[in-house]
TrEMBL record:
Residues 55-474 form the Amine oxidase domain. This is Hydroxysqualene dehydroxylase HpnE. Keywords: Oxidoreductase. InterPro entries: Amino_oxidase, FAD/NAD-bd_sf, Flavin_amine_oxidase, SQase_HpnE, Zeta_carotene_desat/Oxidored. The keyword Oxidoreductase applies. SUPFAM superfamilies: FAD/NAD(P)-binding domain (SSF51905). It comes from Actinoallomurus spadix. The gene is hpnE.
C-alpha cells in the first residue's frame, strides 16, 4: 500500500468504490439495475440475505439493490445502524458514541451520498485541530497550503506542545513512517510504542502528538498497538494527500444519519428490512434459520461482529473460525455533560495530559435549546469501563473545568455515561493475521464487517469497504464467476 491507495477504484469509478449509478437520492438507472442472476435461472430470484444491519450490512444491501438484486436485511435489534445509533434521554437525542470521519474516508462518504445525507455532516475545508491541556497551554495543528506530505510539516515545526528538539524528531519520524508499507505482514508483529521509541520519540512526543491520532483511530494505547494499522492511519490520513485528514462530524443524530436513512434507501431500491429478527443458524442451501423459521437465500452475507459471526458461520465453511476470538475487544466510554449555559465556543478539540481525550459540542446536533451539551470521547477505555458513574463524574467534571474555566460557574443540568464494551476488536500485534477475508469455503456465503481484512483499521470506513467487497463477490457468484 502507498499514499495513493485511496485514489484507486478497483470496483467501479464511483466514490470510494461505489458504482457510478447517478444521484444518491434516486435509484440507479434501469440499465445499471438489470439483475445479475445465475445462468439458467428464470422467474423471480430468491432474495440475498444480509445478516446484520450495521454499516457493513447497510452498504452491501444498497450496493446489491442498485444492481437490481433482491435483498433482505435481518437485524436482531429494533433499528439499523449497528454500533452507530442514538437514543432519547429526557428530550435529549444522544448518540451512543461520538463518531468522526476524514476526507480520505471515500467509501464512507460514498455511503452518505447514497443515503442522501451528505448535507447532514460538516467537513472541514482544511484540517485544523486545537489541542488543549489542563495547564491552559493550548497547541494547534493546521495544515498548510502545500502538497502532501509537506502540508503538515510547518504545523509540526511550530507545534507549541513540543520542544524544538522534539519537533525536529517528530518530523524525522513522520518521514520514516511514510517509508513503511502497511501491507507488509511483518509490521503486524511489531508494537507501535517500540517503533516510536526506536525512532527517537520520547514520552512527551508520544502523549502530545502520536497518541492524539493513534488512540482515536485504533482504540488502543500506543504501547499496545500494532505498527501495521498505525502506519496505515498515519500514511493515509496525515502523510498522503494534503486534504486527507480534514475532519468530518455528524450534524444530526447518528440514528437519523445512518439508521433511518438506510432503512428508507434500502426499501427504495427494492430491498426489505426485517428488524428484531434474530438469525440463529445458517444451513446448506444456503438456508437461514430466523426466529425458528427456515428461509432460502440466493446468497448470504454475514455482517455481524466477529463473536456473533463465529457462532453463525458453519465450521465447514470456515474451519478456523475459533481463531476470531483472539481478536478480543477494546472499549470506548463516552461522558455526556449538559451545562446550563455555554462554556466553550470550540466545536471540538483534542486533549492531552487529562482523562479527557476528545471533546465535542453536540448542542445543535442533539436539538438542545438551552445551555450547552458536550460529549467527551475516551478510547482505549479499559481503565474506565467498569467504574461507576459517580467515579467518572468525580474525575471528568473537574477535568472539564480545568479545560474550560467557564464551566466552573455553570450548573450541570445532566451528567451520564454511555459504554461500548466491544467497540472495536483489539488492534494489537498479531491481530492482523486473525482477520479473515470476505470469502468462505461455501459458495454464496461471505463475510463483512470492519473486523475483517479490509486493509483499514476497525473504523466506519473499513465497515463500508467490507460491505462493498462482499456485494461485489455476491454479484460475481450469482453471475457464475469465481467466488
Amino acid at each position: 500500500m502507498n499514499p495513493s491507495v485511496l485514489d484507486r477504484r478497483p470496483e467501479a469509478p464511483g466514490l470510494g468504490g461505489w458504482p457510478a449509478t447517478g444521484r444518491a437520492d434516486r435509484p440507479a438507472p434501469s440499465a445499471a439495475r438489470r439483475p445479475v442472476r445465475p445462468p439458467g435461472r428464470r422467474g423471480p430470484m430468491t432474495p440475498i440475505a444480509v445478516v446484520g444491519g450495521g454499516l457493513a450490512g447497510i452498504t452491501a444491501a444498497l450496493a446489491l439493490g442498485e444492481a437490481g438484486l433482491p435483498v433482505t436485511v435481518y437485524e436482531a435489534r429494533p433499528r439499523l445502524g449497528g454500533a452507530t445509533h442514538s437514543f432519547e434521554r429526557d428530550g435529549l437525542v444522544v448518540d451512543n458514541g461520538q463518531h468522526v470521519f476524514l476526507r480520505c474516508c471515500t467509501a464512507y462518504r460514498g455511503l452518505l451520498d447514497r443515503l442522501g445525507v451528505t448535507d447532514r455532516v460538516r467537513l472541514q475545508d482544511r484540517f485544523d485541530l486545537r489541542v488543549l491541556t489542563p495547564a491552559g497551554r493550548p497547541g494547534r495543528l493546521r495544515r498548510a497550503a502545500l502538497p502532501g506530505p509537506l502540508h503538515l510539516m510547518p504545523a509540526l515545526a511550530a507545534y507549541s506542545l513540543l520542544r524544538p528538539a522534539d519537533r525536529l524528531r517528530a518530523v524525522r519520524c513522520a518521514l520514516a513512517l511514510r517509508r513503511l508499507d502497511p501491507a507488509d505482514p511483518g509490521l503486524d508483529g511489531i508494537g507501535l510504542g517500540d517503533w516510536l521509541a526506536a525512532h527517537g520519540q520520547r514520552d512527551t512526543a508520544r502523549r502530545a502528538l502520536w497518541e492524539l491520532f493513534a488512540v482515536a483511530a485504533l482504540n488502543i494505547g500506543v504501547e499496545e498497538a500494532a505498527l501495521g494499522p498505525a502506519a496505515m492511519v498515519f500514511r493515509t490520513a496525515l502523510l498522503g494527500r494534503a486534504d486527507a485528514a480534514d475532519l468530518g462530524v455528524p450534524a444530526v443524530p447518528l440514528g437519523d444519519l445512518h439508521g433511518a436513512a438506510a432503512q428508507l434507501a434500502i426499501r427504495e431500491r427494492g430491498g426489505r428490512v426485517r428488524l428484531a429478527a434474530k438469525v440463529t443458524a445458517i444451513e446448506p442451501g444456503p438456508v437461514l434459520v430466523v426466529d425458528g423459521e427456515r428461509i432460502d437465500a440466493a446468497a448470504v452475507i454475514v455482517a455481524t461482529p466477529h463473536r456473533q459471526a463465529a457462532h453463525l458461520v458453519p465450521w465447514d465453511a470456515v474451519p478456523d473460525r475459533e481463531r476470531w476470538a483472539g481478536l478480543g475487544e477494546s472499549p470506548i466510554v463516552n461522558v455526556h455533560l449538559h451545562y446550563e449555559r455555554p462554556v466553550t465556543d470550540l466545536p471540538f478539540a483534542a486533549v492531552v495530559d487529562s482523562p479527557v481525550q476528545w471533546v465535542f459540542d453536540r448542542t445543535r446536533a442533539s436539538g438542545v435549546r438551552a445551555g450547552q451539551y458536550l460529549a467527551v470521547s475516551v478510547s482505549a477505555a479499559d481503565r474506565w469501563i467498569d467504574e461507576p458513574t459517580a467515579k467518572l463524574r468525580a474525575e471528568f467534571v473537574p477535568a472539564l473545568e480545568q479545560l474550560f474555566p467557564a464551566a466552573r460557574n455553570a450548573r450541570l443540568r445532566d451528567f451520564f455515561v454511555t459504554r461500548e464494551r466491544r467497540a472495536t476488536f483489539r488492534q494489537a500485534p498479531g491481530s492482523g493475521a486473525l482477520r479473515p477475508g470476505p470469502a468462505t469455503r461455501w459458495p454464496g456465503l461471505y463475510l463483512a464487517g470492519s473486523w475483517t481484512d479490509t486493509g483499514w483499521p476497525d473504523t466506519m470506513e473499513g465497515a463500508v469497504r467490507s460491505g462493498l467487497t462482499a456485494a461485489r463477490l455476491v454479484r460475481s457468484h450469482l453471475a457464475g464467476g469465481a467466488s
